[in-house]
Design brief:
Elements (H helix, E strand, L loop, with lengths): L4 H11 L3 H8 L7 H13 L3 E4 L6 H10 L5 E5 L6 H5 E6 L4 E6 L6 E5 L6 H5 L2 H6 L1 E4 L2 E4 L5 E6 L12 H5 L3 E4 L5 H11 L14 H11 L6 H15 L1 H4 L7 E3 L3 H17 L7 H12 L4 E2 L1 H5 L4 H11 L4
Parallel strand pairs: 1-8, 1-9, 2-5, 5-8
Antiparallel strand pairs: 3-4, 6-7, 10-11
Helix pairs in contact: 3-13, 11-13, 13-14, 14-16
Length: about 325
């Protein structure tokens, strides 16, 4: 059944009115970081998870806490440490002496927004404990499966420069993140504003609730209706296939890519592009939407060889090369 573009655009305009108030509330405590804020909106609208990478002090944790404060949702923060156990996140079975049975004690992961701070400071067994929660939106304790609340989103942070006492995230864990966003230093003018805003012993970093979670869930359903034309779908698939078949399409980097993006990367690139179109009030996805999000969706899905690391080649450069090779519809 054909979709009326004008009607869909009108519905998007009506359903996206919450975005501007949330953005304004965030910028009461944040300076700059427009890309980071947009990517968090994308994750919210696609029911996805987001990994934030940047050096300490770039307001990664502050941004996540500020977003949680603008919504009527439950929020939990985990500080990942080497001695953390899976049961500390998920919960466990507690013995009840009164009837001799074991009863589940649900962990703090049963919240809408989860901040996994410095996720790479815990070993793989703790990181992998999140896999079922992130993918199936459920947690199994003993022989019982417990559903997580809706919405449920994991926002994790990691420090890319400190290697002592850190653990590399498993590939399966990385692939569960919709986006991996690089958080960079602020511009000089922005840092001057940060100084004015935060240079006190008690800076104001709390945000007010301006939207109900049900409104975000309703917008998520509308995002699914945003149109992606066949040429744009083919464009997305071509980008992914170039990442897997370097020897065929990009002989100059055939020994530099260990593993290309998975089909989950294809799906997530399309989903994220729909959400980006929603944020600008458009009823259809353009190739530029795909290009704007390609780095965030693919930088943690294209795995490089040791040879690439020795030559100083980054996944960012590989993605740039792929985008330059694939014909834009």
């Amino acid at each position: 059944m054909p979709v009326d573009i004008d009607e869909l655009k009108s519905r998007i305009a009506e359903n996206s009115v919450w975005v501007a108030p949330v953005r304004a509330e965030l910028h009461r405590v944040l300076v700059g970081q427009e890309t980071l804020v947009d990517r968090m909106f994308v994750a919210l609208l696609t029911n996805g998870h987001i990994l934030l990478e940047g050096v300490p002090g770039l307001a990664k944790t502050l941004t996540v806490k500020a977003l949680a404060g603008t919504m009527s949702v439950s929020f939990k923060r985990f500080q990942f440490t080497p001695d953390l156990l899976p049961a500390d996140l998920l919960g466990t079975l507690i013995y009840s002496p009164s009837d001799g049975s074991f009863k589940p004690k649900l962990g703090p992961i049963f919240a809408n927004l989860i901040l996994a701070d410095e996720i790479n400071r815990s070993p793989a067994k703790v990181q992998s404990a999140l896999l079922e929660a992130m993918q199936e939106r459920q947690v199994t304790i003993g022989d019982t499966t417990h559903k997580l609340p809706d919405p449920f989103m994991v926002m994790a942070t990691q420090n890319p420069i400190d290697q002592e006492g850190t653990y590399q995230l498993p590939e399966a864990q990385l692939d569960r993140f919709l986006l991996k966003v690089r958080v960079n230093y602020p511009a000089k003018s922005e840092e001057r504003q940060i100084l004015d805003l935060m240079s006190t012993s008690s800076p104001k970093v709390d945000t007010a609730q301006v939207v109900d979670a049900s409104v975000v869930v309703a917008s998520r359903l509308l995002v699914n209706n945003i149109l992606i034309s066949d040429p744009v779908k083919d464009y997305i698939v071509d980008i992914i296939h170039h990442s897997r078949n370097a020897a065929e399409f990009m002989p100059e980097v055939k020994n530099l890519i260990r593993c290309g993006a998975s089909p989950r990367g294809t799906i997530n690139l399309a989903l994220a592009s729909r959400a980006l179109a929603f944020l600008v009030g458009r009823a259809y996805v353009t190739p530029q939407d795909v290009k704007d999000l390609a780095h965030d969706v693919l930088r943690h899905r294209i795995l490089l060889t040791y040879e690439a690391e020795a030559e100083g080649v980054t996944s960012e450069q590989i993605i740039d090369l792929i985008l330059s090779k694939v014909a834009v519809p």
